[in-house]
Amino acid sequence: MEPCTPTGQYYSSSSLSVCILAVLEWDVPVDDDSQIMSLIQDVFLPINPRFASILVTGKSGEKNLKKVAVKLEDHIKVPVFEEGLSVECYDEYFQEYLSEIAMERLNKSRPLWEIHIFKYPTSNGAATTVFKLHHALGDGYSLMGALFSCLQRADNPSLSLTFPSIRSNNYMNKKKSVLELLSVFKNTVTDFTWSLFKSNVLEDHVSPIRSGKEGVKFSPVSISTVTFSLDQTVNDVIVGIIFYGIRLYMEGTNQGSGNARSTALVLLNTREATVYQSLEEMEKPETKGPWGENFGYIHVSIPEATNIDTSDPLEFVFEAKRMITKKKNSLVVYLTGTLIELMRKLREISKHIRGVIWKTSLAISNLIGPVEKMSLAKYSLKGLYFMVVNIPQSLMVMIASYMGKLRITIGSEKELINQKLFNTCMENAFERIYKASTKTIST
Ligand SMILES: *[C@@H]1O[C@H](CO)[C@@H](O)[C@H](O)[C@H]1NC(C)=O
């Protein structure tokens, strides 16, 4: 028996039981069943003993991992549909299937993962594989690192994958003047106070993007993606675009609702490394927090949408960017991380995190994928995205980059949010902001 990770402890309780779906789209059909089985057996399972363990609750309520024998056939699902249908048809089947997977609960008597192989061609690939991984297995960063470690560079397997350079967010490493430090201190105090207030007291308004229903984590979710080109956008600007798209949607659905109090929980990894560490490195005890211990978040208010149709979209993005920059210039993310650690010791963590998520309108998280094409044996990877499901929120936005493309994945409560309209609003937001910015540059 091995004690479960902190993430495992707080993502697997009755108040919060969260799964990650990682969707991999392939260039070629996935047809060789025996090869696939051996890849899962020889490449996926050995990644971590956790993939062959179940969670058992100890005497004092703590969770431990217990090794069990894995029966692959219990974990690999291959749905069957009618043959020879159109790509559009399979697109729809896939979406429905993904939505079903999102709703199903994993069997707790087995290791907490499933692999679904959708063998039919969709507009995004010749075949699609969905990894459903319980968050108890690790945080998003370590799980994605694990998945990437199974894949190789398609052009030359002996070269290592490279990731787009990201500015280091380790704010404390830079030298600062006294004045700057004072400002960091002031920001930290105000942000942390507000974050505490927001986490414990202040709930967002019910709006076209927040149903505010207690049972929302069990409501059907639809999952869809919108793709942008990475070189047209800059990191923080993306969040601004998403906010703008959300307000366009809210105003489009219910005029005036664009001024509802809506807060996004931006999830951050406080790990110092900006690229994926190798698995061996992650497992080293001196690498603080392998498999999910460096987790923090910031609360960002979505700017209100006053005259959103006539006002300058760039103003909106700048406002969002200003807010995020200010939060980043404070240590609030480290403090919320510390608070989580403290709550964990008090065994109140699941309830606390559930409350934090529940009181906001959406969560945003991102995943940086490699610049080069990846492959697994003869299968080259066309695209990838991920989604977190069973969280107490009506809307979840995940950003994933791969091969210079940015994929925004939207998970939305089916009964509440009109997913087609929502995606159109996202595309419009991108279009308008892109146009406005090129106009500004050229004049
Ligand atoms: C859950 O898994 C166990 C062990 O494989 C099995 O005996 C049981 O029937 C499963 N339960 C359901 C509801 O599928």
From TrEMBL:
Pathway: Lipid metabolism; Glycerolipid metabolism; triacylglycerol biosynthesis. Its main location: membrane. GO terms for cellular component: endoplasmic reticulum membrane; plasma membrane. Pfam families: WS_DGAT_C, WS_DGAT_cat. Keywords: Acyltransferase, Endoplasmic reticulum, Transferase. GO terms for biological process: triglyceride biosynthetic process. One of its GO terms (molecular function) is diacylglycerol O-acyltransferase activity. This is Diacylglycerol O-acyltransferase. The keyword Transferase applies. InterPro entries: O-acyltransferase_WSD1-like, O-acyltransferase_WSD1_C, O-acyltransferase_WSD1_N. It catalyses: a long chain fatty alcohol + a fatty acyl-CoA = a long-chain alcohol wax ester + CoA; an acyl-CoA + a 1,2-diacyl-sn-glycerol = a triacyl-sn-glycerol + CoA. The lineage of its organism: Eukaryota, Viridiplantae, Streptophyta, Embryophyta, Tracheophyta. Residues 291-433 form the O-acyltransferase WSD1 C-terminal domain. It is found in: Cell membrane; Endoplasmic reticulum membrane. It is a single-pass membrane protein. In the N-terminal section; belongs to the long-chain O-acyltransferase family. Coiled coil: none annotated. Residues 94-168 form the O-acyltransferase WSD1-like N-terminal domain.
